[in-house]
Amino acid sequence: MMSDGMLSQEEIDALLNGGDDSTTEPSKENLLSSIERDAIGEVGNISFGSAATALSTLLNQKVEITTPNVSIVERAKLSDEFPKPHVAVLVSYTEGFDGSNLLVIKTTDAQIIADLMLGGDGTNPQGELGELHLSAVQEAMNQMMGSASTSMSTVFNKRVDISPPTIDLMDVNANEGTDHIPNEDMLVKVSFKLKVGDLIDSNIMQLVPLDFGKDLVDQLMNPDTGGDTVVEPANEEQAQPKLSSTYPESKQASATSYPQESRQDESSYTNQRNANVHPAAFTDFTPHESVSVDQRNLNMLLDIPLQVTVELGRTKRSVKDILELSHGSIIELDKLAGEPVDILVNQKLIAKGEVVVIDENFGVRVTEIISQRDRLEKIQ
Q1: Residues of the chain whose pLDDT is less than 70?
Q2: pTM of the model
Q3: Which of 62, 103, 113, 148 is deepest in the core (most CB within 10 A)?
Q4: 224-257: string of b/e by CB count within 10 Å (b at 16+)?
C-alpha cells in the first residue's frame, strides 16, 4: 500500500524483482529468431543426412538421423543438459568458416559405436571406453563430419573443410573434459534423433557458439559476404539463396541410410534442397580432395600398436607336475605335428598359419583367416 503517494521500499523491490523475472527467459528465447532457428536446423538436417550415410557404411548398420531441434542453452547451466558423463568430439573448420562445433553423444552409445568399429556386433560393448575405443569413436565422428562438410560446401556454395577432431570424456558436474566447450555464455544446441539398427535409439547433439550460429545464417542468406565461391551464379536471382518455404514439413523427414546400398535417397534429397537454395552444379566440386582428407584421417588408427602372438599349443598340468619340471623336461602340447598354429591379435584368434624359418629366425606364414562369426564364437 502506498503512503503519502509514495511507494514503499518493499513495493519498489517487488516491482524490480518482478520485472527481472519476467524479462530473463524471453530475452534468452529472443536471441534467435524463428527464421534463424529454421535455417540452422535445415543446415543441420542436410549435413547430418549425409553424415548418416557415412556412419552406415562404417558400422554396416541401418542409420537414421532425424528431426533437428534447435534451442539456446546457457554455458553455466550445461550440467542440467548433461547431468551424466558424455563423450564430446570437437570439430574445427579449417576452410570455409571460422569456428568450431562440439558433438556430444551418450557414453553408452559411444561404447556401441566403438564395438562396431572394432569388429564386434554391438550387443556386448565393453564397460569402459579405453584409448582404442575412443580412437574408434573419434574416427567415426571424423568420417561423419567430413561427409557433412561436403554437404555444407553444396549448401553454402564454397569449399568447407575440417581438421581432425579431438575427443574427450565430458563430465560437466565434475568439471572434467570441459576444455572443448565453447567459452561463450550462450550456445546453440541442435539435437538430432539417432538410431543405429536395433542397437541405439538416442540423441546426438551439436553445440556451437551463438555468434557462429548467427554467422552460418548470415552466410546462407547473404552468400557474397565471405568465403571462396565454388559455382558462379548465372544471374542475380540465383545469387540469392532462399530458405525452403516448406521447411516445417521437410524437417520432419528422416535421413535414413542403409548399409551397402546406393546413396540415391541422399542424392535426391540433396538435389531437392538445392533447388530451394541455389542451382549448384555438383560436378564442379572435387570429391577426390575430400577422399584424400579422409584417407589421411584414417591413418590416425593405423598407428595404434597391437600385440600379435603366435601360439604353438597349450596343455594343462597340475601344480605338482609344474614343480617337477627341470632342465631337459618335455611338455606335450595339444597340437599334432604339422598342424597349423594359432595367430592371435590382442589375445583374440584371427588367423592360422604354419611355422617357417627366415634366416635364423622363426616366422609364421598365414594360411587361413578366421571368419568374423568363428571369431565371435571363440571369444564367447
Answers
A1: 1-29, 224-301, 375-380
A2: 0.54
A3: 113
A4: eeebeebbebeeeeeeebebbeebeebbeeebbb
